[in-house]
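YM 10:42: DH200=94 genomic scaffold, scaffold_510 sequence, as discussed on the call
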Amino acid sequence: MLSKCKMPIAHEVMVGLDDEAAKVIERLIWGPEQVEIVPIVGMAGLGKTTLAKKVYNDSSVICNFHTRLWCTVSQEFNMKSLLIQILCPDAKHSRVDDEFQNLDEHVLLEMLHKKLMKNRYLVVFDDVWDIGAWHELGIAFPNDKNGSRIIFTSRSSNVASQVQYGGEPHYLRPLSEKESFELLQKKVFGKEDCPQALHGLGMEIAKKCRGLPLALVVVAGVLATIEHDICVWEEFAESLTSTMVSGTDQCKKSLELSYEHLPYHLKACLLYFAAFREDEKIGAKNLMRLWIAEGFVEKVEGKRSEDTAEEYLMDLIGRNLVMASESRSIGGVKTCYIHDLIFEFCKTEAKAKNFLQVLRGYDELSTFNVPPYLHRLSICSSGEDFIKSKLFCPHLGTLLFFDATPGDEFELRNISFLFCIYKHLEVLNLEDINLRLKELPTEVESLLCLRYLALKGRTMEFIPPSIAKLSHLETFILNSCMTVSLPDSIWNMKNLRHVYVRGDVAIGLSSNDNNVVENLSNLDTLSTLCIYFDQGGENILRRIPNVRRLKIFCLALNALNRACRNMSQLECLESLTLGSFNFSGSREHVELSFPMNLKKLCLSYLGLPCRKMSLIEQLPNLEVLKLRVQSMEGQKWELMEGGFPKLRVLTLSELDFVEWTETDPHSDDYFPCLQQLKLLKNSNLEMVPACLGRISTLETIKVRFCRDGVDSLVRKIEEAQKNYGNENLKVIIIG
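YM 10:58: structure's back
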């Protein structure tokens, strides 16, 4: 059985690490029986994390360990959040996270101990700065003398020498001159070779980076954007001569050079990363919405600002200043992060240019002298310290708060005073403070300049009609556990583009005084819309004609029917999540009608007859389909020939069907683009289509907690794929 794991997808180009990885893997697999810590030590930017990822994802390592876990420690670590990160890596912003947050540290330590007990485990602690983290966590790691291993990555060899079970540090070497040029060449030219005319200059530039991978990729990011001309490269090589030195300073000089080569609009986007916590995996959508609200993104006629912002992000990734850690199922970046050296550079540069001030902890908060014309402030402290500091910045344009102690949630019963003090805010993010309120205070109307508002109020149910006075508001995010009622005045907020309520949202529908039905033609995202009545869904859908991402939950069969019937009018819709309450009654007469542009579809509790699946199979642009619990009803799903022409990802979870077949077992006209197949908790499944063994594009099959017969069926698919020449298919079976 393969090991359980959750590891961010990394897109680094790896050069010169094969021999290093082989040495570490040998220690992991063939070392002593007792648990051992394997420290990977080296200066910042040398590739410690990249090496750890390479080892962690090696097939021999995967087969050797029952359980693999990964967590990032960083300079400012919180014990409770570290434990939650290890125990439940998918927990962020989920209800599971809420449950874990309410548990005591000792309970979490015991849970981790039980999870690892009797298992041969591999746990990676990335970026360990201080041994204090291990002294508190170490008791949770059993020594069953079964060959379990722990990897530390650290800049300090002292960290390794101070721990029990600490082995000899593995000191990571710099890249050779040949390896340095190879990395530079791959980052600048991709799969192509460096032109012969530039080869000598490329070698010279690579040599000046002194084997430091981070310096090489940052320099490559500049070279990739300038003309591939001898004179231009000579000038660039000369500019490195007087600045490049050894060690960390070398990286800083490279970063300064790369920053100076950025277009003006990208400089602001990069410096904005300093507002977040170090090593944080940042949601790309949210980041881009913040950039838009801040005015960093140029408005282009006939083009959505989100598309322009995505181009900015991809440009920064292309320049090797930002890393994509996780990809979206329908393409694009889901989460991203920056190297800690780049983070420090951004923080220093942002402060020096009065672009952004970052305050951490009560000492900095309480002693902070507000400079004139301070526009942006990011605070990372406990919520209690933030309120206690009585910070007064009346002309502030951006206020971002991040809880430094996420294990101890701070609750606030009054937020009105903040709305009254910071009247010039354009961006307000208080998602890490729980507002213990049933209704958002009407004083929110004071924030007339607001473009971005993100709040958490687990018990919040009502948003006042006065919110419509925020005529510039583009993004509204509310983390609630309730059904939140939005006032009908929201239809007057013409600039509103993103409404995301974790929980459900109900929207009033009355027209204005002149009986004119208002709509939100700019709305791009609406989640999660709760439809109670049969007429509600139909009318709401008419009012959001250009929505691209929509999540709906229906509480009545008539509401479900109306929603499905009128969905096709949303011609811009790309991503749809549709669910219903598990009510009684047949779905036989539910009329499915989805827009042709749909790329992603997630269904749950719909109970649609298997024979109606052909309507989904015919969608010409569908790339991702997730059929979750009870979304499909019936014993047999027979695939139609020629269906799913663009489907890349298919997830079937907690379905009751028994037979999954194709109309013609000998035809190859099924799933021509399928890359990933996931089968989760399908306890009755006995048959899968034979065509799965002949799909040349298939990359991954994941099976979790299905009956044993499914495991053997998948192994037959794997064997058939090998017979057809697909040696790279990954099959992961758990449970």
